[in-house]
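Q: Please design a sequence for this.
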């Protein structure tokens, strides 16, 4: 990370590095703020998502073909259910989770929380990515419009930032170019850190750029969210569940998501 890390801590805006298909690596900025304090990116001029995500103009290994939705097969669901039934702690865990869900619902009804949401260096529903720190800094110091200008003290950050400051921390570095190939290798080869990090950035981008199909694909209870939960879990039954998840389906689901993200990127230098 850059030596002057306190600059980002001071303003709570951080550099992010994303490796995309086609051997392209880009830099951007991300912040988290209470939803009530920010205005979402304007997508009124953006094409319909079905047009944006059709596969046209997507670099790298993403094809133009119509991609089917990622769904569990009946055999996979039956096998996972069988594993759960064999787990002596499964019933107790299910009851505990049901109770927790009820308590969470009651808490949400009792109090509306102003949740922090992600905001990127973006404009009109497009993520702005820069190949170099110099290009990113030159852009933010210009008068070009983007979504981060609404942040408090943004002008103060812009006045201080230098190209040498734009160095993403390991926790803010994402390798979306490796996810599909890794998933194709099967459960024994799956890199949990790689896939879970991809889920983090994809969820943030889906929300910040108002990409509804990505949000739905990774929402709680979806097949790809189930994959994340299985990767986070440990122990014998977690490993058995992972083996029931089809490599082809998992890679296809992520291939679709990465194609959608690629279509929503605006390369600026």
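A: Design:
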């Amino acid at each position: 990370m850059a030596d002057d890390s306190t600059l980002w801590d001071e303003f709570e805006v951080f550099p992010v590095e994303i490796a995309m298909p086609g051997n392209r690596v880009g830099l951007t900025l991300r912040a988290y703020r209470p939803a009530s304090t920010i205005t979402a990116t304007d997508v009124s001029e953006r094409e319909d998502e079905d047009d944006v995500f059709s596969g046209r103009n997507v670099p790298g290994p993403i094809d133009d073909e119509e991609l089917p939705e990622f769904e569990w097969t009946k055999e996979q669901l039956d096998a996972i259910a069988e594993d759960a039934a064999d787990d002596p702690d499964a019933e107790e865990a299910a009851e505990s989770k049901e109770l927790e869900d009820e308590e969470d619902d009651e808490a949400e009804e009792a109090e509306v929380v102003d949740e922090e949401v992600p905001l990127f260096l973006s404009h009109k529903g497009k993520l702005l990515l820069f190949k170099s720190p110099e290009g990113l800094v030159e852009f933010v110091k210009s008068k070009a419009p983007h979504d981060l200008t609404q942040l408090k003290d943004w002008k103060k950050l812009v006045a201080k930032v230098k190209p040498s400051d734009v160095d993403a921390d390991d926790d803010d570095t994402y390798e979306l170019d490796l996810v599909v190939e890794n998933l194709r290798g099967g459960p024994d080869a799956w890199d949990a850190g790689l896939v879970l990090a991809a889920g983090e950035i994809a969820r943030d981008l889906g929300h910040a750029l108002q990409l509804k199909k990505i949000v739905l694909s990774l929402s709680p209870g979806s097949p790809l969210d189930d994959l994340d939960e299985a990767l986070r879990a440990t122990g014998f039954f977690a490993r058995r569940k992972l083996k029931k998840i089809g490599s082809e389906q998992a890679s296809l689901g992520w291939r679709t998501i990465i194609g959608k993200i690629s279509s929503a990127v605006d390369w600026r230098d």
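Q: Thanks. Anything notable?
A: The first helix runs from residue 6 to 11. DSSP finds twelve helices and seven strands in the chain.
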